[in-house]
Amino acid sequence: MKLSIVAYGDPVLKKVCTPIDENYPNLNELIANMWETMYNASGVGLAAPQVGLPIRLFVVDTGDNDDEPRYKKVFINAQILEETGEPWGFTEGCLSIPEIREEVFRKPNVLISYYDEDWQKHEEQVSGFAARVIQHEYDHIEGKLFTEKINLLRKQLIKSKLDKISKGEIRGDYKMKFPRQNKKR
């Protein structure tokens, strides 16, 4: 089932999310719905707060590309243990912030601890584009958005666009829920 993606301005996107356990209700169904929602929106990652749930869960699928192998995983109760390397810029977007893309600097390597969908614990070193996507989604479960990582001038320049998103005046190509508008799209 395709879920509504929560738009910029919704308080759930600013919450530090809570851990879950293997008894979380309908977890497998939620994960399946998150995959379907992410693919429908042409995303490479989706965090639970983006579908309105303040829990420590996100999914990542970098897809196939010529530069790096596909990286597809479910992350439950993830903790980034270390970020290393020289920060590099890359233009990022976010399904909760349609039509806005900005350059964000992130370190190229992460060491992350997490549980998968079978509740197996992992500690893994990830590099490159997959590391960037993990950091972006991890920020979501920490209540942070990529727009907080851009320079002050760029923040000022996109302020009116962000306000339009929260009012539902910008339409995504997928089902969204806007904080300052009661109807879903």
From TrEMBL:
Reaction(s) catalysed by this chain's protein: N-terminal N-formyl-L-methionyl-[peptide] + H2O = N-terminal L-methionyl-[peptide] + formate
Active site: 137
Keyword Protein biosynthesis attributed: yes
Transmembrane region(s): none
Keyword presence, Protein biosynthesis: yes
Gene Ontology MF term list: peptide deformylase activity
Top-level taxon of origin: Bacteria
Keywords in alphabetical order: Hydrolase, Iron, Metal-binding, Protein biosynthesis
Known EC number: 3.5.1.88
Alphabetical list of InterPro entries matching this protein: Peptide_deformylase (IPR023635), Peptide_deformylase_sf (IPR036821)
Binding positions for Fe cation per the UniProt entry: 94, 136, 140
Family the entry assigns: Belongs to the polypeptide deformylase family.
Protein role: Removes the formyl group from the N-terminal Met of newly synthesized proteins. Requires at least a dipeptide for an efficient rate of reaction. N-terminal L-methionine is a prerequisite for activity but the enzyme has broad specificity at other positions.
Family matches, as HAMAP family: Pep_deformylase (MF_00163)
Protein name as it appears in the record: Peptide deformylase
Originating gene: def
